[in-house]
Amino acid sequence: MPILYNDATREFHLQTDKTSYIFNILKNEQLGQLYYGKKLRHRDSFERLFHIEEMPNTACVYEGDLVFSLDILKQEYPVYGTTDFREPAYQVLQQSGSRITNFVYQHHIIQQGKNKLAGLPATYVEHDEEATTLEISLYDEEIDVEIQLSYSVFEQLNAITRSARFINHGREEVNLTRAMSASIDLPDADFEMVHLSGAWARERHMKNRKLVPGLQSISSTRGTSSAQQNPFLALKRPSTTEHHGDVYGVSLVYSGNFLAQVEVDHYDVTRLMIGINPFDFNWLLESGESFQTPEVVMVYSAEGLNDMSQTYHKLYRSRLARGTWRDRERPVLINNWEATYFDFDEKKILELAKSSKELGVELFVLDDGWFGKRDADTTSLGDWFEDKRKLPNGISQLAKNIADLGMKFGLWFEPEMVSEVSELYKTHPDWIIHVPNRNSSHGRNQLVLDFSRQEVVDYIHGLVAGVLRDAPISYVKWDMNRYMTEIGSLELPANRQREVAHRYILGVYSLYERLTSEFPDVLFESCAGGGSRFDPGMLHYAPQGWTSDDTDAVERLKIQYGTSMVYPLSSMGAHVSAVPNHQVGRITSLKTRAEVAYFGAFGYELDVTKMDDEEKAIVTAQIAFYKENRSLIQQGQFYRLASPFADDGNVTSWMVVSDDQSEAIFGYYQVLAKPNPGYARAFFKGLHPEFEYVIDGIDDTFYGDELMEAGLQLNRYRQDKHPSDFSSIVYKLTRV
Question: Where, by residue number, does substrate bind (predicted)?
Fold first, then answer.
């Protein structure tokens, strides 16, 4: 049984195959944290893990008891104001002005399966035996409010999910000023904090910093999870590597403003918490109403960062992503954006499609510029009607013509935005996120529609669904190209204005839910100016995302390596684009560009009609290779071998291995050539030590243990004996 309860000592023991998570009910009927880490055998009592003694200069709960202080106790869902001076997981503002609460244990239930979260994305089960759920009720009698803490244990997948639900049973309204999804107190501070930071065109770079006393955090206040920070944080021991050592990961299944925070107290206890950012947040709970926090996925590994990542990959690929395309091989696509930008017509699009089909491309995607009077990024967002100047026969006929070529057809939308120069804005200027009598800032010459309003979501649904019904469309690229400013809604009263950002994201989720349910055979790809909303919340609706607008092969090494810390290869849109690269101006070979992009959902973003015969032959071979191996790439186990974030960072290496260990694909990339470099050796991972493998292009065989322990001498076998800048190697391994 993955969830055990010791009745005599009132202890909960949550177990996965490799993990134990233990907490108890304290003397004051609140919850205390005992242990999180490598799996422990179950005992009738874990009291030996619980010890407190009198400490100086603190406040204590009970008169005459100088020991019991929340200031020195590890806790499960802590609150401020009753002897704990650290930042809390939640805070409830009452009509009296008080923020002091006393939520105490009432009861709990343990059941098979896992419930859905109302209006929010979350992991799920297909059969009840896949997970076991613990629900604990905490209750404050004075204000008649309940907190339901939910824990689901994916025993085989070594993951535990958490969330909290606040229910107002009372007659008076209350305000949630803080409602984090999870908090974990760890007994020491000997950790380094790993997070994924960046900006547009350089998203999700790995950052690493040692914990120090006080607060350290990452967050977003941009209305999205953002390119600047990703809603993920890990704590690892200083000696932990990709393949050895302890690491604790928390990942928030949410796409809006978030906070992931670590606080180290005066006794080096580490408090890790994650959830909706309390900055500029308040939620009014009227009598009978409830509020659900987003879900957190906690993963502990004693086998390094890569093992933690593999847990996230498998869970997110199979029990967060949903729908027809979850397990299907993704089509090789071409997107016209960098080939044409806004300058195209029907003839040009059909020429691109025909040339692409000849190379083996399976899906043609028409990007921005097909609607309204969209000749630049200054007009027409919100007017989702085809531009008959460019497409005189409409989207429907264009899609049919491309289908007649034997290809699927995809289309770009940006449903959440409106241009000031548009029919929609002219009719409904009040439908934007804004504050009356204040300037409305713009980004990319566009404004944000108020998706906290149901009528706005309904209107956009009608337009998008109408296009999808009228044409044979197989793929939708859903873009979002600006952050929120002047956050306010004309629909909500003054005391609910700080709910707008969260209500907006709920509106986005509801539109995704309606469209993916109505069009289950359409492959949705999320995009946000590239990777500005690449998060688990989006993955629940769109099984792949556009990883970054930056398609430069060298920069993509960092972006894809960092993204793989949490997200599976099947979720990463990865394209080959033209050179000089449109984002950084770098010139890399067609070979290297493809050999980086193979490790994702593969495609092209260039003008194939301008290629010569030699380039077309190379692309044809690349597409054939990817088609042959895409099941392995999209569903296999991913191993990071050499990091672009290392001190030198000149070499990146990774590989993917099939579940039965009979096949693997290895990638090795060198950024700059070095004079007289010495011998390069690659050490593989994940192979079966007793299997004998053949490597394409090498006239020899190797046992798995040789490749993993002794390594492969790259100088001996690589064809380019004097590799240039931006060189790459990809090897396919097959069991003999």
Answer: 200, 367-368, 444, 477-481, 527, 549
Average pLDDT rounded to a whole number, residues 405-434: 98
**Cβ contact 174:90 at 8 Å:** no
Structure tokens, 362 = 């399976």
Question: Does 208 appear as a known binding residue?
Answer: no
User: pLDDT tens digit string along 612-669?
Assistant: 999 999 999 999 999 999 999 999 999 999 999 999 999 999 999 999 999 999 999 9
Is 481 assigned to a binding site? Answer: yes
Task: For 465, list phi and psi in degrees, rounded to 5.
Answer: -60, -35
Does residue 367 have a known ligand-binding role?
A: yes
Q: What is the pLDDT of residues 526-543, one digit of tens each?
A: 999 999 999 999 999 999
The token duo for 260 is: 């992931």
Alpha-carbon 457 to chain mean position? 24
Per domain, the residue ranges of the chain are: 79-315, 333-631, 641-735
Please tell me if the domain spanning 79-315 has the same topology as the one spanning 641-735.
no
| 572/53: higher pLDDT | 572
Give yes or no for residue 722 having a pLDDT over 80: no
Q: Is 60 annotated as a binding residue?
A: no
Render pLDDT for 507-522 as a digit per residue (tens, 0 to 9).
999 999 999 999 999 9
Burial code (b: 16+ CB inside 10 Å, e: under 16) for 403-429 equals bebebbbbbbbbbbbbbbbbebbeebe
Task: Output the pLDDT for position 414.
Answer: 98
Cα 109 to Cα 314: distance, rounded to the nearest angstrom: 28
Instruction: Out of 43-52, 309-318, 608-617, pick the least confident.
Output: 43-52
**In angstroms, how far is CA 5 from the centroid of its own chain?**
33
Determine whether 557 is exposed, middle or buried from the number of CB atoms within 10 Å of its CB (0-12, 13-18, 19+). buried
Query: Binding site annotation covers 477?
Result: yes
CATH placement of domain 79-315: 2.70.98.60
What is the distance between the alpha carbons of residues 74 and 183, in angstroms, rounded to a whole number?
A: 10
| 188: CB partners within 8 A, 6+ apart | 268, 269, 270
Q: What is the DSSP letter of 200?
A: T
pTM, to two decimals: 0.98
Residue by residue, DSSP assigns 653-674 as: EEEEE-TTSSEEEEEEEESS--
| 368 appears as a binding residue in the annotation | yes
For residue 182, list its beta bridge partners. 274
Mean pLDDT of all residues belonging to the chain = 97
The CATH number that domain 333-631 falls under is 3.20.20.70
Per-residue pLDDT band at 720 (split at 50, 70, 90): confident
Give the residue numbers annotated as catalytic, written as ranges.
479, 549
Q: What CATH number has the domain spanning 641-735?
A: 2.60.40.1180
pLDDT of residue 678: 86
Only one residue has tokens 């243990």, namely 705
- Is 343 annotated for ligand binding? no
The encoded tokens of residue 215 equal 């607060």
